[in-house]
Amino acid sequence: MDDIDAWVWWLIGAAGLGIPLVVTAMPEFGMLAVGAVAGAVTAGIGGGVVLQVVVFTAVSVALIAVVRPVAARHRARGPQLATGIDALRGKQAVVLERVDGSGGRIKLAGEIWSARSLDTGRAYEVGQEVDVVDIEGATAIIV
Fold it and tell me: I need a labelling partner for 105 at 20 to 30 A (CA). Which of 27, 28, 82, 114 fits?
């Protein structure tokens, strides 16, 4: 087997490792495929079989050791949950005491809040459902 054949075999191996990457969505196969491409490059520039295997192993192990933990941390972080007043924005509330531009009371998330309307000329009557658009201090701003 001459050097040209060796790099072709490495590329076939890389393509072969790409198939389970697509089927299983396991990124480790992609990292091994990149290692195989590095072995093909080594063969293409005239490196011996031992050097090709060493380059394949070193690149594959380095990628798995560096990229995999970063990906795992990113995946474990998950979606950020809104808490505190951020969680109240966009919620619906019920008017307990007439609310206008100067104030009033609503029931929001099981608690009684002071509130005022975003549009100072608009008033909301008792029992009406409203949406909270912002929280300023201890006052909900509603529409």
Answer: 82
